Amino acid sequence: MRLHMINVHEFARRLSTLGTDAFTSDDVVDLATAADVRISADLEIDATVAQRLLDQITPTLPVTGAQITASQWPPPKSSRPAAPSVSFSSPGAVDGPADQPSRARTFGPARSGRRPGSRRPGR
Questions:
Q1: Where is composition skewed (Basic residues) in this entry (predicted)?
Q2: SS3 category, 6
């Protein structure tokens, strides 16, 4: 099986279609420098190198190195539904369902960890 490869300009074009930022071939060379990959504008990129370059992008993009270098672009949509987004009202807090009854709190002296009568005298 022959690996599919794309050039730096095509890689930049495909990256530009994924997000709000427009990528140039110079941006791809900068990504390669950050990933410690030797690259120039006339070299071709395979899936392994593409993944190393994608790992340098924050926030992460919803594509793998194999998908971005595949002959079919854009990658086919998954038939599986995407997971719903989760939002939190404040850092560290988790909101539960509103209709969930709250537990009654008991007041009074704290209970010890032992049950009464669990210890037999004389042993």
A1: 112-123
A2: strand
